[in-house]
Amino acid sequence: MFHTRRSGLILAVSVLLGLGPLPPANAGVRADLSGDAVVDFATTMDMPFMDVGNLGNLSDVDDGYGGVDYAYRMGKFEVTAGQYTEFLNAVAADDTYGLYNARMADPTFIDGDDFPHGGANIQRAGSSGSYTYSVAADWADRPVNYVSWGDVARFANWLTNGMPSGGQTAATTEDGTYPLNGATSSTDLKVAIAARKSLASGGLYFMPSEDEWYKAAFHKNDGDTANYFTFATSSDSDPGFIADGAAPVDPDVGNVATYDGDGGVDGIGAPYYRTEAGEHENTPSPYGTFDMDGNIGEWTEGLGFGSFAIVRGGDYVFGIDGLKGDFRRIRSLTRESGDIGFRLASFVADPTCIIGDVNCDGFVDISNDILPAFTNFTGPGSFGKDRSTGDVHGPAAATTDPIGHDGDVDVSDILTIFGAFTGPPPDEGHGGGLGGPAEAGDPSIPDLIYDAATGEVTLDADGSSIIGYSLQNASNSFLPAGHTPILAGVTTALTSQLEEAALAPGSGSIGLVFPTGLNLAGLQSLLTVNQVSRSLGAPLVPFDLIIVGGAAVPEPSTYVLSLGAFLVLVLVGSRVHRGNESRLV
Prior knowledge:
Layout lengths: L6 E4 L17 E4 L6 E4 L7 E4 L19 E4 L5 H11 L30 E4 L6 E4 L13 H12 L25 H9 L10 E2 L3 H9 L78 E7 L4 E5 L16 E4 L7 E2 L3 E3 L18 H10 L35 H9 L27 E5 L4 E4 L5 E8 L24 E7 L5 E5 L6 H10 L11 E8 L10 E3 L5 E6 L9 E3 L1
Parallel strand pairs: 9-12, 14-19
Antiparallel strand pairs: 1-21, 2-3, 4-5, 5-13, 6-7, 8-13, 9-10, 10-11, 14-15, 15-18, 16-17, 16-21, 19-20, 19-22
Helix pairs in contact: 5-6
């Protein structure tokens, strides 16, 4: 990973961002899905995830699946009808991409093969543009069905985006972990599968791959081994089942699943057939997940031939063989049926992914964090940007949560990065802060060069780079004539405006033009006058200030400029020796 050898930062901002109060939580009460306790919930819903560790475990020698060399989290339960109904009410008032299937409303449906493939009793009312959805209380905690691969991907995007309300757009369902952008065909959905975003790029929730699903279901959670159970009930013995016509046993006796264990009535029989999520509370997988065997089949990212994907886990109409690790169903990506639902997985936040850290390398520096944010600046209100492009400031303000982002790269993001600046890693230059002590003429310090004859300000033309931003009012501007700001409209009470002065990596000119004929005292005064006196709490930043084209002056030491408000310079580079120059403090 590239870092500059030495970086300095001179930051001046007097833009005040007003952050309003957070919207009230959509509070309510629901039964805990793994027992009888009652818990409070908000818009985050009751959707816990379980850590899946043992990085580098080997695949199952019998089936060839389950080896995963990174940490992730698996949904503790299958996604329920109640959770999916909340999703529909948030984004499907007109249901552009068909997230609702009419079969969801009929729990009594029997298909042509005489299977009880009724829906989860989710009802839709109203007309397009004002649809509303509801689910019967006795169905809300049972797994949703009649969802396609695309429906699941859109649900994952919605969670990743913070569960917003609105039409099915990039801000809600069409981007997030999967860049769907209107994809509905199997061909386009396969492209979206391949483009699943990483944590650093803004992804968070996703359908598990076959390996991720298999490991969470069957691996014995005993280190980086190739040890697997036969069943996802933490057992090699055939799971028990609820006999035809019998009620679920509460608490269960352990090693129990919802499947057709006796070749008779499917699942638990009419009218539900499927148990509530976590009903078998004493039958977790080794990683603490429930119902990965039986109840409902679960979509994965695994691809079969052509337009088909892999469904795992058996379901309520299958017998014992459907629960084993070697059982895989191949279904069209666009299929919606009564025996398929889903659960999601999530990334584990990298502990080094700190506030303002665009590339999640543990440091907030210029080349990897500040430059991408400036390069990808969009202004507020855009969508489709993610952490890797500089979108590090979420709608609820910046936190240590590396996922917080709002789809644009704006002033909030830039200020967040500046405020968290650490410099490059210690082994690649001075780290741990902005600047540091320096000797006079230190070759690791950038050279800012002022030409007294032309007024032009340049940086060493040796691959160094500089971003110059100025915050000025109408009577005081160093910007070249005809300059067009990219941050137009950002104003303060002083009617000043934050504008781009230059972005010129690897070039000499930085776009600033000062008055001509200045000597050292005049140049220092000019820089000082255009700063506010109050400190922003950051250390002083050294660089070599060089005047050319003027009278000879003493040899330089180091010019130190504190963080202020009216002149912003971000300097990156190394000092080189020049002939016939005056180097000044």
